[in-house]
Amino acid sequence: xxxxxxxxxxxxxxxxxxxxxxxxxxxxxxxxxxxxxxxxxxxxxxxxxxxxxxxxxxxxxxxxxxxxxxxxxxxxxxxxxxxxxxxxxxxxxxxxxxxxxxxxxxxxxxxxxxxxxxxxxxxxxxxxxxxxx
Length: 133
Prior knowledge:
about 130 residues; alpha+beta; Glutaredoxin; 4 helices; elongated
């Protein structure tokens, strides 16, 4: 009887641990870009009732892209429903912007930020001569 109980417990442990391994990915799920080039990822929640927070991020990105089209890295927008990407980068607040260089995160901005702060941080990271005002 004890032998069967041990076998059942061991099988249960193997089954449960295989489920955990299958659900957690160790590879970067952002595959739309070349690994050698920097990329900016904006995590957005379309269902968020407070669109003003996200508008600041979009406005800053649009302004930088229009002033410096050749210097800005590729932009990828990820919706909150894309759970594999949200979990991989441990995104807890929306909006969140990540600037990635390969697998390294060179900048992370989360939640409420005003447009000017976003512009300053991004322009500093990308070494852009930004004129505000």
